[in-house]
Specification:
Strand content of chain C: under 5%
Number of domains of chain C: 1
Structural class of chain D: alpha/beta
Helix content of chain D: 25-40%
InterPro entries (chain B): MetI-like, MetI-like_sf, Phosphate_PstA
Strand order of the largest sheet of chain C: 1-2
Keywords (chain B): Cell membrane, Membrane, Transmembrane, Transmembrane helix, Transport
Shape of chain D: globular
CATH superfamily of chain C: MetI-like
Chains: A alpha/beta (292), B mainly alpha (311), C mainly alpha (305), D alpha/beta (293)
Largest sheet of chain C: 2 strands, antiparallel
Structural class of chain C: mainly alpha
Number of helices of chain C: 13
Number of strands of chain D: 10
Largest sheet of chain D: 6 strands, mixed
Main location (chain B): membrane
Shape of chain C: flat
Distance between the termini of chain C: 51 Å
Mean pLDDT of chain C: 86
Oligomer: heteropentamer
Order of helices and strands of chain D: HHHEEEHEEHEHHHHEHEHEEHH
Bound molecules: adenosine-5'-triphosphate, magnesium ion, phosphate ion
Pfam families (chain B): BPD_transp_1 (PF00528)
Low-confidence stretches of chain C: none
Membrane topology (chain B): Multi-pass membrane protein
CATH class of chain C: Mainly Alpha
Chain lengths: 292, 311, 305, 293, 293
C-alpha cells in the first residue's frame, strides 16, 4: 500500500481523543498552506492508536495523552517502527459533576479513588456522610484511552483497579452529556472539554493534601493542579519522516505548540524554549533518515 | 320472517316510511380516524424533527449567528474546535467518491445477477436458494457488513483501514441485494410478448436481453439503483467498523486514500462539547445530507414517472 | 429437397454460453457474500471462544471487556429492550397505517402517503440518532426525569424508522386479499370496520406476521440510533423496574460493536475478537428471523396467487 | 334523478305500460304452483321495483331506464349476453354498486315500497335484508362454522348462533356432508360445497331477498344441479333473484325471467314459460334460440 | 422419441395411412387455383411435416400423436376449440416451446426433411427461417423503422436495411400509411397497423414460413379484413400457418384446414373446402356447425 503514488502526499494519524482537538486544529491550519496534502485523523484512544495503527505501521503519527508503554515500544520495534516522542501541550484532567449538585465543590484524591475503585462506593453518602444517599452515576474514559490509564494510575495508584461499572466511552461529548443529564453523575476527561462547556457541567477542585485547587490553564501551568495535570504528546514514526508531507506537517505542528492555537483548544501551550528543543530533535531525526 | 308480514305490505303510499334502520357507524368512523392518525403519526413526527433541525441549521432562532448552513460550510475543511469555521467539504467529496465507486461496482453486478435470475435460471432448487439468500442478505444488519469489510478487506486482503476502496466494497455488498431485487422487478415487468417477438425473429437470448429486455427495463433498474445509492450514502456503521478516520483534511486522491463521508462526519461532530456544534454544525450537516438524499430520491422518482408515462 | 442448414453458429453459441456464465457468476456472488460473512465472523469468533468458553459467553450476565468478563446477556437485554420498545410503537401503528392505506385511503391520499412513508424509511439512521439525542430526549425530560442516554428515546426513534416496513409489507398482504372476500362481507351487511377487522386482517395475517418479524429483525440490527442515543451501559433486564429500564442508559449488541469498533479496530486482543462473537450472534438471530419471515410470507403468497 | 322518476311509484304504475307485465295467454306450470299455495301467500306481491333505473360507470351507461317488478317468494332469473348489465342490475338492488367508485345510479329502486336510494337509507342496513351469493364461491378462510356465523356476528344476532348455523347449513343442503367438520376450514370443501356454504352464510341471518350472480357458473354439472334444487327450495321462504348465462338453467329454476340485451336494456320481462315458449320480442327470440350471445 | 418415428419421413409417407390426406372426392376452388399456377410451382410440396408429435406441459399432454403435412406456399389454418393445442402445435414448429420450462416434445417435426428436434439443430437458426406473428400486436417500443429492421439486425443482414424495411412495409400493406413517420414509435399506431407492422417485421428478414397465432383476434372488423387480404397475398411467396378461432376466417383465407379437438388430437386435416362442406368426422361436423366449442 505504501508504494502507491497517492500515499506519499497523505499523513495518517490515530490515537488519543484528548490530543485530537490540537492535532485537528493544526491539520486544518497546515492545509491552508499545503492543500496538496491530505491528512486523516482517527480518534482511537492512545492505546488503541499505538497497538492497532501506529506500531503495525498503518499510521505516521500517534496522538498520546500518556507516555508510550514498554509493550508498545516492543511491538513497534518488532515492526521496525521507531517512535519519536514530542510533548505538545499540558492538560488538566478535569473531574466534573452536574451543575445542580451544589452539595459538592471539591474532592480529595482519597475520595476520588473511593468513587472510582472497583468494589468502591455505590452511593454518594458512602463517601462522605453529608452527601446525598443516591447512586453514583459514573462516566469515564474507555480502557483504550490514555486518559483512562493516567487517571487510573494517578488516582487509584498501583494497587487499585478502576471500576467497570461505569459508562465507558471514547467520545468525551458523551461524558459531558451524561453528566449534564444527571444530578448524581460524575465524570472525567481532558480540560478542553470542560473549557468549552463551563455552564453545563461543574469542574471539581482536587485536594491533594494542599487544599482545594480548581483546574485551569494557570494552575496546570504552575504545577499546582496535582495529581491530574499531565503532558500530551505526539509520537512520530521516524520511518515516515522520509516523506516530505510528514516532515513538513510535524515541523509545522511543533512550531504551533507554543502559540495561542493550543490555548484556544483548552490546553497549556509549550514554552518557546521547549518548542525549539523539539524542533532540534526533529531535525536530528530527519537527518538520520534522509542521510541513508 | 313471519313477524314481518304486516310490515312487509308494500306500503307504496307513504314515501316517508322509516328506512330499513341504521347501523351504528361510531366504530367505523372512530376506526377510520384512528387508522388515519396512525398513518400520519410517523410522518408528522418526522416533519416536526425536520423542522427543528432546519430551524437549528439556519439559526432561525439565533439570527446573530447567521445560518450555519452556508457556502463556507459546504466548502471548508472540518474543524473540531471552532464551530464557526467548521466545514463539510471533505465529507461531501468523500460521499460522492464513495457513491461513484459503489455505483460502478453494484450496477453491473446487480443487473448481471438479476438478468441471470430472471432470464436464464430455471425455477429449480438452486435458483430458489439463491433468491432466498438474496432476500436474507437484504436483511442482514449493516454493522455485520461492517465486520465483513473489517475481517475480509481490511485484515485478510490488507486493503487498508478506512480507505475509499474498502468502504466502497463493503457498502456495495450491503446494497447489492437491494439492487438485485429491484432490477429483477424491473426485468420481470417487461411483458413476455416482447421477448416472444424477439425470439420469434431468430434473436439469440443475449440479443433479446440486450435489444429488448434491457432497454425496456432500464428506467426501472436505474430507479432501483439510485434509491439503493441513497441508502448507501446514509450508512454509518460499516464505515465505523472498517475504521474510517474521524477527520479528514483534504480530498481523496486514490482508491487507497482514507476517506470520511457525510454521515460519518456528522457522527464525529456530534460529540464535540460546544453547544454550537450540537445545535448548529451537526444540524447543518444533517440538513445537507438530507437534501442530497432528497435530491437523489427525486431523481429516481422523476425517472420512474417519465417511464410510467411512456408505457 | 435439400435439407436446410439449421446448425448453430459456433461463435454465437460460445458467446451465449459466456454471457450466461458471466451472469451466473454475478448471481453466485450473493452466495459467496453469505459464505464470506459466516467465514469472517467464525474465523475470529473461534479464536474468541478459545479464550472465553461459549458457555460463559452465552450464559454470562456481566459484560465488562476491561475485566475480561464476556457474558453476552446484558447486551442481549439491551437489544431486547429496544426491540420491545420499538415494537410497541411500530407494530400497531404500522398495522393501522396499512389498514388505512389498503382499506380507507382514497387514491390521492395514497399517492401522497406512500412516498412520504418511504421517506421515513430512507432517513439515515445517524440522523435519527441525532434527533433522538438532541430533540426527543430533552422533550421527554420535560415530562419524566430521564437520563441523557436512555432506551426510551432510542426505542421511539427505531420504532418510527420501522413503521414503513410494517405498513408496506402488511399493505401488500392486505391488497392480496381477494376483493371477493370483501364483497362477501359487505353483502352480509358488514360495515367497513367489520370488513377490515374481521375479514381483511385475519386473511392477511401471515403477511402481517411476516412484516412484524422483518421489522423486529431490523430493530435488532439497528446500530446508529442506539449507539448515539441509548448509551453504553451494559445492563441486565430488571423486570422489577420497567420504568428504569427505559429511562436509563443501556447497551445493545450493535452499540457494543460500535464501541469496540470505534476504539480498537485491528488489535488481536480478546476484546477485539469479542466483536466477532457478538456479530455472529447478531447475524444468526437476524438471519433466522429473516428466514422465518420469508417462510411465513410464502404461505400467504401460496394462498392467494 | 329525472323529474319523472320523482313521482311516486304507484302513480307511475298505472300510468305506464310495462313490458311483459300484461296478462300472459299461456298457462304455465309456475302459475299452477303459485295457485296451489294461494291460500297462504299473496300471489305475485311485488317486493322489489325498479323505476326508470339508469346506472353509469363513469361516462359509460350500463343500464338504461330499467322498469321491473320482482315478485316476493319467487325465483326471478336475469338473462342476457355478456356485458348487458345483469350483474349491474343485481348489485343496484342491495347497493353493492356503492362500493364501485365510478358507479352512479339514477332513477328509483323500491324495496317494499321504500326507495333504497333515498338519503335516509343506510346501505349496510339494506344489505342485512338482502343477502347475496357470488359467481365463484368465496368462503372466508375461516372454519365452516365461523363462515356461516359471520353474518350473524356482524349483524349482532348473537343468540343461539350454533343452532342458527346448523339450520342454515341444513337449508343449504350441506349439513349432512359437513356435520363432522364444522371446525375445519371452509376452503377445504369442494367447489360445489363451498358455494352451498356461501348460500348457507347468506341465509343464516335470515334476509328477505337473496341475490345470486351466476352462482353455479364455476361448478361442475353435479354440483350445479344440487344448487339448482336448492334454489327452488329456497324460494319457498325467500325471494330469489338470480343472474345466469345458462338459459336452460333459467328455464328450469325460475318463475319469472328478465331478458337484458346489450346496451343495458331490459327487453322483456315475463313468466319464464312465456319467455321461453313465446317471447314477444324478436331479439329475445333470436337470443333464446341461440342466434347470438 | 419413439423408434418408429426415427425412420426417415419419406419412408413413412408411403407406409402410413393418414387422416385426411387420401384423395378428396369433391373438387374445390382451391384446387382450381393451384392448378392454374401449376406451371410455375410444384403443387402441394410438403415443407413441414409432423410425425407422431406429442407435447407435454409437465404431466399434462397437450398434443397427442399429431401427423400432418403442411404444403409449401399455401395458407394452412389450424382451428379447434379453446385449449385444444393449436398454439402449442404452432410453437412446436419453430421450437418456441423451448422457451417454456415445463414443455416437452416427443416425436418428430421435419422442416424441409430435417427434423428440427435433432441435436444439431439450433433453434435460433430455425426461427430465422420460420417467422412468427402473435395474437396481440407486440411491436417493440422503438421506431417503426427499428421495429422492421430488428430481425435484419439480429440476423446480421446489415446491407440495404432501409430498402428492405420499405419493401417489408410495402408487402405488409402498411408503407403508404406510415411512410412519413418511420421514425416515430411503433406504439403510436392503431391496433390494426401495429399488427401489420408485426407482420412486416416478421417478413423483413425473408423467412420461408410465417406462423401466425390468431393474428386478428384483437382487431376490429376493418383491420381484420386488411390482415386477411394480406395473408392471401403473402401465400404467394411464403408458407403461412395460421391459428384462428374464427371459422369463417379459416374458410375465407386458407387452402388447407386442420381441425384439432379437445385433448390435443388432430381430428381432420384436408382441403379447406372439403372440411367446411363435407367433413368426414362427425365431431368435426358438430364443431363446424357450432354444436359446441
Ligand atoms: N366495475 C366496473 N367498472 C367499469 N365498468 C364496469 C364495471 N362493472 C361492469 N362494467 C361495465 O358495465 C357493463 C355491464 O357489466 P355487467 O358486469 O353488469 O354485465 P353482465 O351482464 O353481468 O355481464 P357478464 O355476463 O359478463 O357478467 C359492461 O360494459 C361492463 O364493462
Ligand atoms: N405455458 C403453458 N404451461 C402449461 N400448460 C400450458 C401452457 N400453454 C398451454 N398449456 C395447456 O396446453 C393446452 C393447450 O393449450 P394451447 O394454448 O395450445 O391451446 P389453444 O388451442 O391455442 O387454445 P386457445 O384457443 O385458447 O389459444 C391447454 O390445456 C393449456 O392449458
Ligand atoms: Mg356479470
Ligand atoms: Mg392459443
Ligand atoms: O483518548 P485518550 O487521550 O484518553 O487516550
Amino acid at each position: 500500500v505504501g508504494t502507491l503514488s497517492g500515499e506519499s502526499r497523505e499523513v495518517n494519524i490515530a490515537g488519543s481523543s484528548t490530543v485530537f482537538p490540537v492535532t485537528s486544529v493544526v491539520a486544518s491550519e497546515f492545509r491552508e498552506e499545503r492543500d496538496d496534502v491530505t491528512i486523516s485523523i482517527s480518534r482511537t484512544g492512545t492505546g488503541g492508536g499505538f497497538s492497532n495503527f501506529f506500531c503495525p505501521g498503518m499510521t505516521d503519527i500517534n496522538n498520546a495523552s500518556r507516555e508510550i508503554a514498554d509493550v508498545e515500544v516492543e511491538q513497534c520495534g518488532g515492526n521496525d517502527i521507531t517512535p519519536i516522542e514530542f510533548t505538545v501541550a499540558t492538560d488538566a484532567l478535569t473531574v466534573v459533576v452536574n451543575p445542580e449538585a451544589d452539595w459538592i465543590d471539591c474532592v480529595t484524591v482519597e475520595e476520588l479513588s473511593q468513587i472510582w475503585q472497583a468494589d468502591g462506593a455505590e452511593r454518594w453518602s458512602e463517601v462522605r456522610d453529608e452527601w446525598p444517599d443516591e447512586e453514583i452515576q459514573r462516566f469515564g474514559a474507555d480502557t483504550t484511552s490514555g486518559t483512562f490509564d493516567y487517571f487510573d494510575e494517578a488516582i487509584l495508584g498501583e494497587d487499585g483497579t478502576h471500576t467497570t461499572d461505569y459508562h465507558a466511552t471514547e467520545r468525551d461529548r458523551t461524558i459531558v452529556q451524561g453528566v449534564q443529564g444527571n444530578e448524581f453523575a460524575i465524570g472525567y476527561f481532558g480540560f478542553a472539554y470542560y473549557d468549552e462547556n463551563p455552564d453545563e457541567i461543574k469542574a471539581l477542585g482536587i485536594d491533594d493534601g494542599n487544599g482545594c485547587v480548581k483546574p485551569s490553564l494557570e494552575t496546570a501551568k504552575k504545577g499546582e493542579y496535582t495529581p491530574l495535570s499531565r503532558s500530551l504528546y505526539i509520537y512520530v514514526a521516524q520511518e515516515s519522516l522520509e516523506r516530505s508531507a510528514v516532515r513538513d506537517f510535524v515541523e509545522f505542528y511543533l512550531e504551533q505548540t507554543s502559540t495561542d492555537l493550543v490555548n484556544e483548544v483548552g490546553y497549556v501551550p509549550m514554552t518557546e524554549d521547549e518548542r525549539d528543543e523539539n524542533l532540534a530533535e526533529l531535525d536530528d531525526a530527519i537527518e538520520e533518515v534522509t542521510a541513508e | 320472517m313471519s313477524s314481518d308480514t304486516e310490515q312487509s305490505q308494500p306500503d307504496l303510499t307513504d314515501a316517508s316510511e322509516p328506512a330499513f334502520g341504521r347501523v351504528s357507524r361510531t366504530k367505523d368512523v372512530a376506526f377510520r380516524w384512528l387508522t388515519f392518525a396512525a398513518a400520519l403519526l410517523g410522518i408528522v413526527a418526522l416533519a416536526a424533527l425536520l423542522a427543528n433541525v432546519l430551524v437549528d441549521a439556519l439559526a432561525v432562532t439565533d439570527p446573530e449567528y447567521g445560518s450555519w448552513l452556508d457556502w463556507q460550510f459546504l466548502t471548508s475543511p472540518p474543524s473540531f474546535s471552532d464551530p464557526f469555521a467548521a466545514g463539510f467539504f471533505p465529507a461531501i467529496v468523500g460521499s460522492i467518491a464513495l457513491m461513484i465507486v459503489i455505483a460502478v461496482i453494484t450496477f453491473p453486478l446487480g443487473v448481471g445477477a438479476a438478468i441471470y435470475l430472471e432470464e436464464y435460471a430455471n425455477d429449480g432448487y438452486l435458483t430458489r436458494f439463491i433468491q432466498l439468500n438474496i432476500a436474507n442478505l437484504a436483511g442482514v444488519p449493516s454493522v455485520v457488513y461492517g465486520l465483513l469489510g473489517l475481517g475480509l478487506f481490511v485484515s485478510l486482503l490488507n486493503l487498508g483501514f478506512g480507505t475509499l476502496l474498502v468502504a466502497g466494497f463493503t457498502i456495495s455488498l450491503l446494497i447489492l441485494p437491494i439492487v438485485i431485487i429491484s432490477a429483477q422487478e424491473a426485468i420481470r415487468s417487461v411483458p413476455d410478448s416482447q421477448r416472444q417477438a424477439s425470439y420469434g425473429m431468430g434473436a439469440t437470448k443475449w440479443q433479446t436481453i440486450r435489444n429488448v429486455v434491457l432497454p425496456r427495463s432500464m428506467p426501472g433498474i436505474l430507479t432501483g439503483t439510485i434509491l439503493a445509492l441513497g441508502r448507501a450514502i446514509g450508512e454509518t456503521a460499516p464505515l465505523i467498523m472498517i475504521g474510517a478516520p474521524t477527520a479528514v483534511f483534504g480530498t481523496p486522491n486514490s482508491l487507497f486514500s482514507k476517506i470520511t463521508a457525510m454521515p460519518m462526519q456528522i457522527f464525529t461532530w456530534a460529540d464535540r462539547p460546544e453547544m454550537e456544534f450540537q445545535y448548529g454544525v451537526v444540524a447543518a450537516g444533517a440538513v445537507t445530507l438530507l437534501v442530497v438524499l432528497l435530491t437523489i430520491n427525486s431523481i429516481a422518482i422523476l425517472i420512474r414517472n417519465r417511464y410510467q408515462q411512456r408505457t | 429437397m435439400s435439407a436446410p442448414d439449421l446448425t448453430g453458429d459456433g461463435a454465437r453459441t460460445t458467446r451465449g454460453a459466456a454471457f450466461k456464465a458471466l451472469f451466473a457468476l454475478c448471481a453466485a456472488l450473493s452466495i459467496l457474500t453469505t459464505i464470506a460473512i459466516v467465514a469472517t465472523l467464525l474465523y475470529d469468533a473461534v479464536d474468541f471462544f478459545a479464550a472465553v468458553s461459549p458457555l460463559e459467553f452465552f450464559t454470562g450476565t456481566e459484560w465488562t471487556p476491561a475485566n475480561e468478563v464476556y457474558g453476552v446477556w446484558p447486551l442481549i437485554s439491551g437489544t431486547l429492550i429496544i426491540t420491545f420498545g420499538s415494537a410497541v410503537i411500530a407494530l400497531p401503528i404500522g398495522l393501522l397505517t396499512a389498514i388505512y392505506l389498503s382499506e380507507y385511503a382514497s387514491e390521492r391520499r395514497r399517492a401522497f402517503l406512500k412516498p412520504a412513508l418511504e421517506v421515513l424509511a430512507g432517513v439515515p439512521t445517524v440522523v435519527y440518532g441525532y434527533f433522538a439525542l438532541v430533540y426527543v430526549t430533552p422533550a421527554l425530560d420535560a415530562i419524566v426525569p430521564i437520563g441523557t442516554f436512555n432506551a426510551l428515546s432510542a426505542s421511539i426513534m427505531v420504532g418510527i424508522m420501522i413503521i414503513p416496513m410494517v405498513s408496506s409489507i402488511s399493505e401488500d398482504a392486505m391488497s392480496a386479499v381477494p376483493d371477493s372476500l370483501r364483497r362477501a362481507s359487505y353483502g352480509l351487511g358488514a360495515t367497513k370496520f367489520t370488513v377490515s377487522t374481521s375479514v381483511v386482517v385475519p386473511a392477511a395475517l401471515s403477511g402481517i406476521l411476516s412484516s412484524y418479524i422483518l421489522a423486529l429483525s431490523r430493530a435488532i440490527g439497528e446500530t446508529m440510533i442506539v449507539a448515539i442515543a441509548a448509551g453504553q451501559t451494559p445492563r441486565l433486564i430488571d423486570l422489577t423496574d420497567p420504568a428504569g429500564m427505559f429511562l436509563g442508559s443501556i447497551q445493545t449488541m450493535t452499540a457494543a460493536m460500535v464501541q469496540i469498533g470505534a476504539s480498537d479496530v485491528i488489535g488481536q486482543s480478546t476484546e477485539y475478537k469479542s466483536l466477532f462473537a457478538v456479530g455472529l450472534t447478531l447475524f444468526v438471530i437476524t438471519f433466522a428471523m429473516n428466514l422465518f419471515s420469508e417462510w411465513v410470507a410464502s404461505r400467504y403468497r401460496e394462498v392467494y396467487r | 334523478m329525472t323529474q319523472d322518476a320523482m313521482t311516486s311509484p304507484e302513480a307511475e304504475q298505472t300510468d305506464e305500460q310495462r313490458t311483459g307485465t300484461g296478462p300472459t295467454p299461456g298457462t304455465d306450470g309456475l302459475a299452477d304452483r303459485t295457485a296451489e299455495s294461494e291460500a297462504e301467500t299473496v300471489v305475485d306481491r311485488t317486493i322489489i321495483e325498479a323505476r326508470d333505473l339508469d346506472v353509469y360507470y363513469g361516462d359509460d351507461q350500463a343500464l338504461q331506464g330499467i322498469d321491473m317488478e320482482i315478485p316476493e317468494k319467487q325465483v326471478t332469473a336475469l338473462i342476457g349476453p355478456s356485458g348487458c348489465g345483469k350483474s349491474t342490475f343485481l348489485r343496484s338492488i342491495n347497493r353493492m354498486n356503492d362500493l364501485i367508485d365510478i358507479a352512479r345510479v339514477e332513477g328509483d329502486l323500491y324495496f317494499r315500497g321504500k326507495n333504497v336510494y333515498d338519503e335516509d337509507v343506510d346501505p349496510v342496513a339494506l344489505r342485512r335484508k338482502i343477502g347475496m351469493v357470488f359467481q365463484s364461491p368465496n368462503p372466508f378462510p375461516k372454519s365452516i362454522r365461523e363462515n356461516v356465523a359471520y353474518g350473524l356476528k356482524v349483524q349482532g344476532k348473537d343468540e343461539n348462533v350454533d343452532e342458527k348455523v346448523r339450520t342454515a347449513l341444513e337449508r343449504a343442503a350441506l349439513l349432512d356432508e359437513v356435520e363432522d367438520q364444522l371446525d375445519e376450514s371452509g376452503l377445504d370443501l369442494s367447489g360445489g360445497q363451498q358455494q352451498r356454504l356461501c348460500i348457507a352464510r347468506a341465509i343464516a341471518p335470515d334476509p328477505e331477498v337473496i341475490l345470486m350472480d351466476e352462482p353455479a357458473s364455476a361448478l361442475d354439472p353435479v354440483a350445479t344441479s344440487k344448487i339448482e334444487d336448492l334454489i327452488e327450495d329456497l324460494s319457498e321462504e325467500y325471494t330469489v333473484v338470480i343472474v345466469t348465462h345458462n338459459m336452460q338453467q333459467a328455464a328450469r329454476i325460475s318463475d319469472k325471467t328478465a331478458v337484458f340485451l346489450t346496451g343495458g336494456e331490459l327487453v322483456e320481462f315475463d313468466d319464464t314459460n312465456k319467455i321461453f315458449e313465446n317471447p314477444e320480442n324478436d331479439r329475445v327470440e333470436d337470443y333464446i334460440t341461440g342466434k347470438f350471445g
